[in-house]
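Why does residue order matter? Because the sequence determines the fold. Keep that principle in mind as you read this record.
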Amino acid sequence: MQQKQNLVLFDVDGTLTEARKPVEKRMLVALHHLAKECEIGFLTGSGMEYIKEQLWPALNDPIIRDNCHLLPCNGTEYIVPYGETFDDLAYKMISKEVMRRRISDESFYKILRRICYLQNALFSENTSLPATGHFVQNRQSMLNWCPIGRNANTEERNIFSALDKTFKIREKYLSELRNFVKNLEIDVTIKLGGDTSFDIYPTGWDKTYALTHFDEKKWNFWFVGDRCEESGNDYEIYELLKPTKRAFKTSGPSETVDFIDWYIIQQLRQEDK
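Structure:
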């Protein structure tokens, strides 16, 4: 029987990098060594532009680049990088889903209008919140709603995160938006995204969707993420793979490096013996 290949999937923000920050050297070294042992997947709720922004040093490493899979928007987009050098690096789109086709234009517009209504209500009730612009991002296969705006800098994000932890701002609006789509029988899932936003996507298009691009008879799947609680966008894939003992909840990039160096690589080498 042919031995299965191993694919280690990583969330990005809070797992490989600090929120919206570039990957650091210690992580690059760990990923370089891991890419010699198996295939790697970068699986994020964000779009491709953030993978390029945060992980470009990893994609500039030929060992990582030749052994990695890019899975933005919960894996509803599947992209592979290619090229001999970073200067001629290109990306091939293998697969891409579109939310409006799945739930209908009418339902899509209703959700957008409701987000705009809730955005106004949120600012009316929380006048101390930063407001930076780019509040809603259409990622084609999902909507991302960021109440302070995706243009927020680190200080503004930290202010919102502190207020959110204290006053449970997002929990309130998460409940309100979920009740809205439930009453209209729109089949979407709404999750907290990172520290500042919400991800809205057709039900079933969570991060387990990424696995559909690979034949499970030929692959062992691993996953490392930081948002593995039920309201987080790593929850479904973490719970799916947890019984295999190949799913890990990390507290941040430093612990992720430890998982890679002291457990995952060691287990992969044991399997090869």
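Residues 48 and 72 are 6 Å apart (CA to CA).
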